[in-house]
Amino acid sequence: MRDRSGWNPLTLAFLAALWIAVLCNGPLWSALRELPETASLRGTLFVAGFALMIAALTGALLVLFAWRRAVKVAIAVVLLSAALGAHFMSTYGVVIDPSMMTNVLQTDPREVRDLLSWRMLAYVGLLAALPIALLWRVPVQRLRLAAQLGRNLAAFVVAWLVLGALVFMLFADLSATMRNHRSMRYLINPLNSFFALATLAHESNRKPAGPPAPIGRDAKATPRAAGTAPPLLLLVIGETARADHFALNGYARPTNPELAKLGVVSFADVTSCGTNTAASLPCMFSHLGKHGYESRSGDSENLLDLVQRAGLAVLWLDNQAGCKGLCDRVPHAYASEPAPGASASTSASAPASTPASAGATAALCSSDGECLDEALLVGLDARLAALPAAARERGVLIVLHQMGSHGPAYSKRSPPQRKPFMPECTTNVLQQCDRNALVNAYDNSIVYTDHMLAQAIAWLAQRQPEYAPALLYVSDHGESLGENNLYLHGLPYAVAPREQTHVPMIAWLPAGARAVSGLSLECLGRERGKALSHDNLFHVTLGVLGIQASEYRPALDAFAPCRAP
Ligand SMILES: [Zn+2]
User: What is the secondary structure of 228-263 as a DSSP string?
Assistant: First the structure.
């Protein structure tokens, strides 16, 4: 017996498609309405036609699931992703492309918690929960399989015919808009999310499985002159720090009070590889550079593997969401984990500069394991000493992966006693903040990074004369702080504003001494205006550590001109 009362799954699918196209695409409609080309009547008709196109495409997708038992669940999933997409795009001015989706998939609970807000709840409630609640009350029609299949096929064909007709009629405006405003396509919700997921799935299928291709097979440490100390490089990977908010680069506020006194060199014109962590981080450690990395056909090992293969000691210490696979083959730890040999009772006897105790870590970390960046320095002596002695004799590379200025909860990135700029924005709905309070919270995180780097330099200075120390700091990408109504980061690189791609890079060497590899700080200071990028990092690091390898390109080693012959 078939029950012919109730709603046909197809009706529900197309109602949901219309709801999503019109109501969940606010960011797209406001972006389109801001274009001068849409001010006319013709423009209004184009926007209306565009909405119908999205409805037809979403409908065609939902038709595939228009079966009595599947349709409600499918619509609920699509509504939820559309509501979340609408919230993030309208609240932070981001777009959803494959690179942003990589970030979403690699996120952790702490990042998610930083993004939760009442505004998000309102979006999900109104755009998804409300229609889902209505949907669940509606009885669904039971048809014979053949009858439903026939209707679904017809609906699928009609949806594509409508779409084709609209594209034909609006082609001139459509192609001009999509060509001139390339990031617009990443606002089409929720198809942008599905497109990004499909692209990532396709890419991961295309890549050969198995271990990454080895690099640095011929890597070796340059023999040192007798009586000289092995290099010890602290490579600090910053997070979301933008170059133009560093006083060292000319920012009007005193955001570098400590580093300014330490004679560091701040490179003023450095460009990031990507606009988000998942894109930038692997690229920074690749020997391929931005262009080569983005067009690579398979995975290869990275800088850390090469340095270890050359016989040096390597350690990755993380205070963030992890190393994105970079540190899989080298020693690594989280800052929230106690250093080897640390115990809660030694805090009183530990040296003031580097407390080696679990108690010191606990003071910097909250109960859920989120730590201020100084936790990276706690017990660093013990972590260094735990690396193999023979390798340390050739040299040491320690990477510190900061939490830095990770948003949108900037105010959590600095402790209460290190907040010179008040009042601070404390909500994660950045648009609701007073712009000055938002910049205050962000700048306080830069001041805290300044303090943490100064502490790192103090620790390094004490490692002499056993080691020849050096520090290199570079951020993974920048951040938008409301310029042109954009917030956070992650816009497609081609359209990303300079705030998201212009990153700070800072070098320190001990004063006076021609320290590591004969480098002179005075000479580096004369080079600080040079245009550099993440492409230089791999080669600069090998140069500082005195490692020879066929992957090393002297032309990309920005420090090479400053090395004594
Ligand atoms: Zn990042």
Answer: PPPEEEEEEEESS--GGG-GGGT-SS---TTGGGTT
Cα(523) to centroid(ligand 1), Å: 30
Per-residue pLDDT tens over the stretch 535-558? 999 999 999 999 999 999 999 999
Distance (angstroms) between ligand 1 centre and the Cα of 58 equals 32
Q: CA separation (Å) from 360 to 270, 308, 346, 349?
A: 35, 30, 9, 12
**Above 70 in pLDDT, residue 352?**
no
Question: Distance, CA 534 to ligand 1 centroid (Å)?
Answer: 13
8 A C-beta contact, residue 279 and residue 534: no
Which region holds residue 293: left if phi is over 0, alpha if psi is between -120 and 50, else beta?
alpha
- Please give the distance, rounded to the nearest whole angstrom, from the Cα atom of residue 450 to the centre of ligand 1: 18
Residue 483 CB partners (closer than 8 Å, separation 6+): 497, 499
411 touches 458 (CB < 8 A)? no
pTM of the entire structure? 0.82
Given a contact cutoff of 8 angstroms between Cβ atoms, the answer to whether 492 and 186 are in contact is yes
Given a contact cutoff of 8 angstroms between Cβ atoms, the answer to whether 453 and 236 are in contact is yes
How remote is the CA of residue 97 from the centroid of ligand 1, in Å? 16
Q: How far is the CA of 404 from the centre of ligand 1 (A)?
A: 9
Is 372 in contact with 364 (CB distance < 8 Å)?
yes
Q: State in Å: Cα 239 to ligand 1 middle.
A: 5
pLDDT at 353: 44
| Centre of ligand 1 from the C-alpha of residue 432, in Å | 23
The yes-or-no verdict on residue 224 having pLDDT over 60 is yes
CA of 277 to the centre of ligand 1 (A): 3
